[in-house]
Amino acid sequence: MVSTWRQNTIDIHDVAKDAHLWNHAYKASQWGFKMATTISNSAKAAKRATNVSLAENLLAEAKKLRINISKAAEAGVALAVAEKRAEIWLKENWEAIQSSNDYVEKHGLPLEQFRMF
């Protein structure tokens, strides 16, 4: 099948819309991760003992590699918190993001006339 150049091109507005959404998601995840790590790494943060069940082979490998299980678990929980916060943020702000994307689709990118590419 012969494809034409037009079929193989990418619509810049689709790229801009996707980039805009991913920019919001990235900022939300970075904010969530920063908040989670700030909370978990705080020198004043109180520690609380808890029981965690891990796969035996994973635990054995971590011990063999001299990984601090508590720190690794804390980092994993901090990451899960950041991801969940980003997910919640996206759900809460979906309408605003969609509205922004609709504006870009209808009117083009703001200041597009000044772009050098």
Structural description of this entry:
- The chain has one domain (11-42, 53-111).
- It has three helices and no strands.
- By secondary structure, it is mostly helical.
- Helix content is 67%, strand content 0%.
- The chain has helices at 12-41, 56-64, 69-107.
List descriptors:
mainly alpha, elongated, 67% helix
Brief rundown of the structure:
With 117 residues, the protein is an all-alpha fold.
Structural class: mainly alpha
Low-confidence stretches: 1-10
The total tally of domains equals 1
Q: How many β strands by DSSP?
A: 0
- Major sheet: size, sense and barrel closure? none
- Spatial gap, N to C terminus: 32 Å
Mean pLDDT: 77
Number of continuous helical runs = 3
Rg is: 22 Å
The arrangement of helices and strands along the chain is HHH
Relative helix content = 55-70%
The global form is: elongated
Strand content: under 5%
What's the helix and strand layout?
Layout: H1 12-41, H2 56-64, H3 69-107
Helix pairs in contact: 1-3
